[in-house]
Fold this sequence. Notes:
This protein has 395 residues and is an alpha/beta fold. It has helices at residues 16-26, 52-60, 64-69, 95-99, 108-121, 166-171, 231-234, 239-249, 255-262, 292-295, 304-321, 325-352, 359-384, and strands at 7-11, 30-34, 47-50, 72-73, 76-80, 86-91, 104-107, 125-127, 132-138, 141-146, 151-154, 156-159, 179-191, 201-206, 211-216, 221-228, 268-275, 283-284, 287-289. Helices cover 38% and strands 26% of the residues.
Amino acid sequence: MRAPLRRALVVGGGIAGPTVAMFLRRLGVEVAVLEARSEADRDAGAFLGLAPNGLQVLAELGLGAEIRARSAACAGLRFFNARGRCIGQIDHREHAQRFGAQMVMIRRAELHRTLMAAAAERGADCRSGAKVVALAERPGEVVARLESGEALAADVLLGCDGVRSRVRALALPASPTPAFTGLCDVGGFARCPDAPLEPGWTAMTFGRRAFFGAFAAPGGEVWWFHNNGARETMQVADPEQRRASILALHAGDPPWIADVVRATPTLLGPWALHDIMTLPRWHAGRVCLLGDAAHATSPSAGQGASLALEDALVLARCLRDTAEPQTAFARFEQERRARVEAVVRQARKNGDGKAPAGPVAAWFRDRMLPLFLRLGAAAQARFYEHRVEWSPPAG
Ligand SMILES: Cc1cc2nc3c(=O)[nH]c(=O)nc-3n(C[C@H](O)[C@H](O)[C@H](O)COP(=O)(O)OP(=O)(O)OC[C@H]3O[C@@H](n4cnc5c(N)ncnc54)[C@H](O)[C@@H]3O)c2cc1C
């Protein structure tokens, strides 16, 4: 059934935003994507992994080949202890057969640019430097006011504005604030040809005082992130002091880690990682949240971006198949809640495992990790094999 929806405002041009805009364009809906950051600012951010469940949404949009060309396949994850001994691995190389796609690593700026360009090509009005600061509902429409003073009206407004969502604060003011996971993140891109990393694999090191992840990208670049729990250390304003604090936290860990940090021209972040275990309501009136705005998840399950992609397809499908936006929003929330909350819980659990361990705890962890990885792989399979379908009707 064709939705009566004519105009939609999408707040946020990250991952969920341009993706839901593309699905709405399929329905002939007039869509504006409002992104707060300017074009020049869009290079911010490091990199992320797109899992099979998210890649299938991009394939549905005909973007599979383009994303593959702009990213690098991840063969798997290898885990190391602070002495550099491999204590376990998760192999992704058979995932294309098993789940229809293999995880890829992509620079965040590259993903954003690709999605926004694809949404614009499909007729969405994609605007940068368009920060939404206020909302109002009038009979039959919702109005967003931009920082510039401009006001835009539509039948529905979709809040895709991330973990610190302004739309959530405005439309659902009783929502709990996101919770600090206890982890901070810093990352970067380095050329470090001597690092003992296998191309295509991600090396995860449980360091003595901090966690370090490094993906060996094609072409010899190392894409890395560092997690530790000391919020104040990460909030050091001076980048060189921050670098010194990271180097100090990895003192005594395999020496290539320090080499990679030293070889990084610009440190990215810091990001204090927050999540939302459960949001009592995802929608109010003509406004609905999706992606991190509704269910932010820490990066430790590698699923936030893929869930945002899944949400975009499911919400557009519900709007297609349901005459009333409010009913569509309720169906969307009902269909998605259990799945996304399970991922948020698992991600928090994974992140807790990155906390530095004393010698005895580290001894146990090294021995128990293969078992934890087997259990983790079962949870991961449930996330990866999930399929959201565009074709069948929502009801
Ligand atoms: C360090 C780090 C590493 C991560 N790694 C991974 C990973 O490997 N795999 C994975 O799946 N997930 C990862 N994630 C999580 C993932 O980034 C998010 O889950 C995902 O980006 C959510 O997409 P989204 O579209 O909902 O929000 P976002 O991508 O956050 O996009 C929100 C957009 O809204 C814009 N915006 C905000 N406020 C306004 C406003 N008032 N008006 C207009 N625009 C606004 C923002 O500028 C932003 O562009 C990571 C997160 C972090 C912090």
